[in-house]
Write a structure and sequence with these properties.
The chain is about 30% helix and about 30% strand. It is an alpha+beta fold. The strands form 2 sheets. Strands 1, 2, 4, 5, 8 and 10 form a 6-stranded antiparallel beta sheet that branches. Strands 3-9-6-7 form a 4-stranded antiparallel beta sheet, with no helix packed on it.
């Protein structure tokens, strides 16, 4: 039913040449679900479960829900990016298609968003109609080209104004940024190594 509504809306937009706001600057096709009167439903969905509390998942207070289309005469792929959200849900809606796999490459804060991907962070996912992928908004990802057919996905970006405000005053995001975690562990390793070297030096001086 939702897909039929989206198709009818797109047909109407095309026929009337009516200008509408697309879901994001990265997509030329797709519709915002609040325009279909789904605001209340999406709010209840956002508030029904708590995921990823370390990135604001326990106090989500706004959302951006939309449907995207990929394939013939539509967007083919989606470049490497992070979402404008704290928690994202991506539901495969169909139809018949090939390609379009999601590729994930690690969670990053703003400072480290362009840092190198570690081998253990490489994860690819093939969409299955009716199934959802839930991930942190700061989890870097993209979508490979849909090579045949048409792929339709429903996305819900969930946001936390409290978490966004708190980020302004933080410098360390090692509770969720993998690069911050690596740098913190390296600092700890260097600190322990320095202490050991100092102890060995003192023991050597005592022995002489």
């Amino acid at each position: 039913m939702l897909l039929a509504e989206v198709e009818n809306f797109e047909k109407w937009v095309h026929e009337t040449k009516f200008k509408i706001m697309r879901p994001s600057t990265m997509n030329k096709y797709g519709v915002v679900l609040d325009d279909f009167g789904m605001k209340t439903i999406l709010e209840k969905l956002m508030e029904s479960k708590v995921f990823f509390p370390e990135v604001g998942g326990s106090n989500l207070d706004s959302h951006h829900g939309f449907v995207l289309e990929y394939g013939i005469d539509r967007d083919a792929d989606l470049g490497f990016h992070v979402d404008d959200s704290e928690v994202s849900s991506n539901v495969g809606m169909g139809k018949q298609f090939s390609g379009g796999e999601l590729f994930f490459r690690g969670v990053r804060c703003d400072k480290h968003v362009n840092t190198e991907t570690q081998p253990e962070e490489i994860f690819d996912y093939s969409h299955v109609p009716g199934r959802a992928v839930l991930h942190r908004g700061r989890h870097r990802h993209g979508a490979r080209a849909t090579t045949s057919g048409n792929r339709i996905n429903l996305l819900l970006w969930c946001r936390s104004s409290v978490f966004r405000e708190s980020r302004k005053y933080q410098k360390d995001f090692s509770s969720w940024c993998a690069e911050c975690q690596r740098k913190k562990k390296e600092r700890q390793r260097q600190s322990v190594a320095a202490i050991k070297m100092d102890l060995l030096r003192r023991e050597g001086q005592t022995a002489t």
